[in-house]
Amino acid sequence: MAAGTGSALAAALGFASVSIITSLALAENLPLAGVLSWRYLLSSVMLLAWLAVAGWEMPSRRDLPRLLLIGGVGQGIIVYLALSALKYINPATLGFLFFTFPAWVALVQVVRGAERFDRRRGLALGLALGGVVVIVGAPTAADLDGRGVALALGAAFLYGMFIPVLRWLQADNSITLTTTWTKIGAAGMHLVVWGWQGGITMALSGRAWLLIGALALFSTVIPSLFFLKAINQIGPVRTAIVSTVEPFLTAILGVVILSQGLSPTTAVGGAMIALAVWILQGVGRGSVSPPAPESG
């Protein structure tokens, strides 16, 4: 249990840096599709190198298209939808809307009959979502551009369905193999979008390459491996709830990297999320669901 929670927290720390590093990379005059294309391309190269060193393996003919299309393209669509919402709503509102995804994960798992949703999980989910609200603030009427809301909630809903799917995709493959081919699929999807927008280029500044390299390694490869590990160890619902610590970690990174202030509400919200994570430690090991059966 503790190891799984630790894996989820490690993943959250990496993913928490995505918005900060992405915003810095976008300031280097790169379009979003360009940043995401290079992010996933470099991630794929790093993971392929790791596979070559650790012992080369390939997914089966059945699993390869699933990993590329369901895992890779699905992941790419979710990320693109979420970050595209920033054109219409501010980051706080995006955070409030996107971090409804643990509720969607819980709903999907309960409907599938894959996991129990007891009082302890319900209390943890309520505290975690409440902590997110305290940290990012509830959106005001002025923020609620319908296009941004639709993009953010659409991304959250798809992510809620995607997390259990990741566990299914990984059932017959190693974590590294699953992560590698989903990243390759995401890279391909973003390259198509970037090409369609008319601007694939390698002419980036040194700072842009440094930022994208950091985004690939510290915000993509490492946290993705930990995230899949957490899903296998403690299940999709617990992993999703622990992941709500991301806005708090983003705020902490903002203090460290961007010299931003840390407000009292951020500290209170972080404490609520920490309490939710602690409550989850009391959920018995026996309630973690087995991997979903494969379907034809």
Q: Can you characterise this structure?
A:
With 296 residues, this protein is mainly alpha-helical. The protein has one domain (2-286). The protein is 74% helix and 0% strand. The chain is built from twelve helices and no strands. It has helices at residues 2-16, 18-26, 32-54, 63-84, 91-98, 101-112, 119-136, 146-169, 175-196, 206-242, 246-258, 264-280. Helix 3 (32-54) runs antiparallel to helix 9, helix 5 (91-98) runs antiparallel to helix 7 and helix 11 (246-258) crosses helix 12. Residues 283-296 have low confidence and may be disordered.
Structure in a nutshell:
This protein has 296 residues and is mainly alpha-helical. The chain has helices spanning 2-16, 18-26, 32-54, 63-84, 91-98, 101-112, 119-136, 146-169, 175-196, 206-242, 246-258, 264-280.
Average pLDDT rating? 80
Low-confidence stretches: 283-296
Distance between the termini: 32 Å
Helix content: over 70%
SS strand fraction: under 5%
Summed up, the helix count is 12
Task: Indicate how many domains the architecture comprises.
Answer: 1
**Could you tell me the radius of gyration in angstroms?**
18 Å
Coarse shape: globular
SSE-based structural type? mainly alpha
The biggest beta sheet reads: none
SSE ordering: HHHHHHHHHHHH
Number of strands: 0
